[in-house]
């Protein structure tokens, strides 16, 4: 790589480190001619094909800028936008394709944006999907309501399963306790002989008789 200071046609790498959670490599280079150092960033190339046919490199900053417009006036922080941009880039790179259309990038944005803010989602979708009438908005809102209506049912099923599990556990403990109650140790016979008192009833009776005799 040419030196940006003296335009020498060569440079050497003196340090390399990963950046952007491993999505890029930051290299520190030194020019052998002027001895000055500079930094380069290398990442896998990803090209976006626009509707006009023009191609340009994928830019996470452009994704965030577009979503930021849809989030104007909404309680969305810059950190949340940065996380959304990272999710979108991870999704498009996970496809394994070196070239993507703007339609593919838009689809990758809609999912995380719906989780982030529903109003911003409708704003972005109205432009991305080219809404032309109120019916388009009503259809999108109806789809969102259907998704939200399914969520409580799923949570309810999970809660029901937990309740059934708790009832089963209590029933099991009750059965275990009942089994322990049936297994009682035998009381040894008295020293003077005689039948053993089952369950200790005769022993308690003898103790009561002795107490009565002592009282007399």
What does this structure look like?
By secondary structure, the chain is an alpha+beta fold. It has six helices and six strands. β2 and β3 (37-43) form a beta hairpin. α1 (60-70) packs across α2 (78-94) and α2 crosses α3 (102-116). The relative contact order is 0.06.
Keywords:
single chain, 216 residues, 3-stranded mixed beta sheet, disordered C terminus
Topology, please?
Blueprint: E1 12-19, E2 24-30, E3 37-43, E4 47-49, E5 55-57, H1 60-70, H2 78-94, E6 99-101, H3 102-116, H4 118-128, H5 134-182, H6 201-215
Parallel strand pairs: 4-6
Antiparallel strand pairs: 1-2, 2-3, 4-5
Assign the structural class, choosing from mainly alpha, mainly beta, alpha/beta, alpha+beta, or little secondary structure.
Answer: alpha+beta
Biggest β-sheet description: 3 strands, antiparallel
Strand content: 5-15%
Kindly report how far apart the N and C termini lie: 117 Å
What is the H-and-E element order?
A: EEEEEHHEHHHH
- Sequence of strands across the biggest β-sheet: 1-2-3
* Overall helicity: 40-55%
Radius of gyration: 38 Å
- Residue-averaged pLDDT, rounded? 76
Shape: elongated
Please provide the count of β strands: 6
Low-pLDDT runs: 153-185, 195-216
What's the helix count?
6
In short:
The chain is an alpha+beta fold. The protein has helices spanning 60-70, 78-94, 102-116, 118-128, 134-182, 201-215; strands at 12-19, 24-30, 37-43, 47-49, 55-57, 99-101.
């Amino acid at each position: 790589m040419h030196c940006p200071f003296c335009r020498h046609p060569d440079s050497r790498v003196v340090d390399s480190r990963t950046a952007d959670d491993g999505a890029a490599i930051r290299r520190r280079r030194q020019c052998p001619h002027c001895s000055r150092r500079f930094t380069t960033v290398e990442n896998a190339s990803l090209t976006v094909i626009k509707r006009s046919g023009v191609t340009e490199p994928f830019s996470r900053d452009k994704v965030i800028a577009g979503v930021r417009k849809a989030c104007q006036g909404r309680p969305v922080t810059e950190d949340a936008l940065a996380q959304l941009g990272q999710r979108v880039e991870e999704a498009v790179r996970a496809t394994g394709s070196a070239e993507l259309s703007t339609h593919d990038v838009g689809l990758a944005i809609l999912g995380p944006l719906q989780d982030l803010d529903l109003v911003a989602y409708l704003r972005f979708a109205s432009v991305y999907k080219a809404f032309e009438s109120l019916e388009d908005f009503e259809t999108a809102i109806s789809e969102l309501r259907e998704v939200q209506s399914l969520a409580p049912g799923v949570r309810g099923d999970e809660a029901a399963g937990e309740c059934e599990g708790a009832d089963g556990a209590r029933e099991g403990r009750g059965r275990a306790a009942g089994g322990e109650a049936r297994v009682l140790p035998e009381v040894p016979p008295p020293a003077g002989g005689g039948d053993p008192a089952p369950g200790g009833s005769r022993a308690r009776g003898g103790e009561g008789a002795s107490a009565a005799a002592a009282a007399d």
